[in-house]
Structure to design on (405 residues):
């Protein structure tokens, strides 16, 4: 990247930026990632000296908040202080994490900062009729997800280049109504969280945040097409990342009230969960490829939120292990690897091998290859990956030190 200069007339800031003499200068827009900075530099066209530096990023003072979140207890969050209070913005992770208030509207440009006077974001202040405490969950979820990817996979934000994670809460696709918005999503640029309505509470629970940022990771790696089997795997990968982020953070911080293998258990108004990775059939998902509850219609982009159950259950088996008989009568035995090894295999599969049109057969082939790369062809890990696919109806079991891909 080479910034392009623009020839301008500017006052010589070395003397006085307001009253200094006018000089002919080249203007350059200079952006740096480490440390983060962006400024216009004005270079004297005759002498080559810097006559003015105009900072575009105005650095505030980093701070640490105490925030009584809706779903994860009282947490310490990185924030910043500027004139007028403390904001849910921080720049210690990549290019930053920022959380905004859509105020029950559908405009990102009209969103505002959450601001607190003393950086002690108490339940008395924020557990209000607007559920403003969920802003803390979104901010915490983004920070925890960033930390997971950095610590476990050495990945710097979702694009591995430190991309800023921007979250917008209180989003509503039909402003000025009481309908509420029952969804959360990654739109290719930012995370968006609705407040729910009849089915959901605000959709900012930790596993949901990990799930949505997982979609951003997928976009920057395999970029699985969002329909049919590839779309189901896109959703499945996000559930796997949501579970992994949650478990990592629970172990790190001692959080309570979270269930690793249930997705969205904290946001359901009627109790239960949105999906179960340990028992997909419980919520209408298949645990077996093209078996019970497998969706064959065209709704939901070919059932992406349904047929993801196969990948979810495979990941659960690889991580925890299980022996039994599947729904077609085949006995299986999978040795549990734990989430760390399971996640490393999953990440290598997604980031190195899969492509936009990959299906479940490809996922089997390449996850076995990923396990082989990391641990060896006859390793416990390669055997577990193979046998878990057999359990969910994709390919044969591991036999005699070989696998059929």
């Amino acid at each position: 990247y080479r910034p392009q200069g623009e020839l301008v007339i500017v006052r010589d800031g070395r003397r006085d930026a307001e009253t200094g003499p006018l000089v002919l200068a080249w203007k350059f827009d200079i952006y740096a990632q480490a440390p983060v900075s962006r400024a216009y530099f004005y270079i004297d066209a005759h002498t080559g000296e810097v006559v003015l530096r105009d900072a575009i990023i105005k650095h505030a003072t980093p701070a640490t908040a105490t925030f009584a979140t809706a779903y994860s207890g009282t947490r310490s969050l990185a924030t910043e202080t500027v004139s007028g209070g403390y904001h849910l913005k921080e720049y210690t992770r990549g290019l930053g994490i920022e959380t905004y208030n859509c105020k029950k509207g559908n405009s990102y440009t009209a969103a505002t900062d959450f601001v607190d006077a003393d950086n002690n974001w108490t339940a008395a202040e924020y557990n209000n009729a607007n559920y403003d405490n969920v802003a803390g969950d979104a901010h915490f979820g983004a920070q925890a997800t960033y930390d997971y990817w950095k610590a476990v996979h050495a990945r710097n934000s979702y694009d591995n280049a430190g991309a800023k994670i921007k979250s917008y809460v209180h989003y509503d696709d039909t402003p000025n109504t009481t309908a509420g918005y029952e969804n959360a999503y990654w739109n290719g640029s930012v995370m968006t969280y609705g407040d729910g309505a009849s089915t959901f509470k605000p959709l900012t629970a930790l596993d949901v945040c990990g799930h949505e940022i997982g979609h951003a990771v997928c976009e920057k790696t395999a970029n699985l097409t969002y329909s049919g089997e590839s779309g189901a795997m896109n959703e499945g990968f996000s559930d796997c990342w949501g579970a992994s982020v949650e478990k990592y953070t629970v172990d790190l911080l001692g959080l309570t009230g979270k269930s690793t293998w249930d997705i969205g258990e904290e946001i359901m108004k009627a109790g239960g969960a949105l999906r179960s990775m340990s028992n997909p059939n419980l919520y209408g998902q298949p645990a077996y490829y093209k078996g019970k509850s497998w969706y064959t219609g065209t709704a939901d982009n070919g059932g992406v939120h349904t047929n993801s159950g196969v990948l979810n259950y495979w990941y659960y088996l690889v991580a925890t292990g299980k022996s039994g008989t599947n729904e077609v009568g085949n006995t299986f035995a999978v040795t549990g690897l734990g989430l760390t090894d399971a996640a490393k295999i999953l990440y290598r599969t997604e980031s190195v091998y899969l492509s936009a049109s990959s299906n479940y057969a490809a996922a089997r082939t390449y996850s076995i290859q990923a396990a082989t790369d990391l641990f060896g062809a006859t390793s416990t890990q390669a055997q577990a990956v193979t046998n878990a696919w057999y359990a969910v109806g994709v390919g044969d079991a591991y036999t005699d030190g070989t696998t059929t891909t």
Notes: The chain has three domains: 6-55, 61-220, 234-391. The first strand starts at residue 6 and ends at 11. The domain at 234-391 is CATH 1.10.390.10 (Neutral Protease; domain 2).
